[in-house]
Amino acid sequence: MVHCAVTLAESWQDRQRIDVQREMSLLTQRIVVRSLFGNDLADRDSRLGDAMAVVGREFGVELGVGLLTPSWVRTPARRRVLAAVATVDSEIDRLIRARQEAEREAEDGEDLLSRLLAARDEEGGRLTVRQVRDEAVTLWAAGHETTSTALTWCWYLLSASPNTRARLTAELDRVLAGRAPSYDDYDRLSWTRQIVKETLRLYPPAWILPPRTARDKVTLGGTPVPAGTTIWCSPWSTQRDPRWFPNPDVFRPERWDVERPENVPEHAWFPFGGGPRTCLGARFALVEMTLVLATLAQRFHLDVHPETVTPKAGLQLQPAAPLHATLHDRTAQTTR
Ligand code: HEM
Predict the structure, then answer these.
(1) Where heme is bound, by residue (predicted)?
(2) Is 279 annotated to bind ligand?
(3) Would the pLDDT of 106 be above 60?
(4) Is the CB of 279 within 6 Å of ligand 1?
């Protein structure tokens, strides 16, 4: 994670203007591919990233008017999704083939893909290539766009909060003293972690969870719920509820100060869902966001424009307009 973030920081220039979501998306994609598949997409990553962006965008349409259109109708949006899915499938197939090739050459595969290929059930059966591909696509898709969206919101919030940003750079200078962070720093970077947590409260990328169905009749918060009822839970609405978060619309990482806990009930903060189907990559994402933020903020300030943007609820909660940022290299400012 840090290696990918350092490489990105080295490619950035003082005063350069960037598309924040795109930079974060390419970064988290590289991270997930390297950590999970032990491979590098080299020049193909934008092809995969663009295909994924199409799926994300059109899925929002599908959640709207798409719900009223029978599933057999091939709308232009659905055709775009199918083409994008075919691209994703073929790119992931390519990664699997590369991995199988490496296995044959007896390279040691410690990554998740190698483990899926090597996995055997009780009878010695293995996963089919299609099953491996489906697992890989799930992890790849679940594992990068959510995190990049969260990081995009994070830069947006930081840009509008000079005091929070100043405290962040002070922590990074104190804990890291100019070196790149490592996994061991995760626990030491408490203010950085609080910023990440507060960002996920205000702008949970998964603003609504996959629905649950009540198996039995139950009463929830005084409301009787018959068996078979579909229940939608929204981190967006709960996490902005003043009953659990005073001044809920204000970005205040202080809420998460471990020394002065603010008594947030369990599951009032649930950007990763909850229960047996909770996000499999929650820890991965929290570590990733913290280390990426630490690596990049150590070197750069991002001034994000526009300064106010409304969120748009599609497959994820994303800024309705693209966010751009002007980079300010902190080291260039010191030497200037
Ligand atoms: C900020 C980043 C992320 C957010 C906000 C997020 C959010 C979520 C949410 C809300 C769910 C549904 C949970 C539920 O229904 O209760 C979920 C499921 C899942 N997530 Fe994440 N996720 C993130 C990052 C990741 C990463 C990095 C990975 C993998 C490396 C990942 C893998 C998965 C998987 C496999 C599931 C399905 C779990 C299951 O159904 O058993 N996620 N995620």
Answers:
(1) 279
(2) yes
(3) no
(4) yes
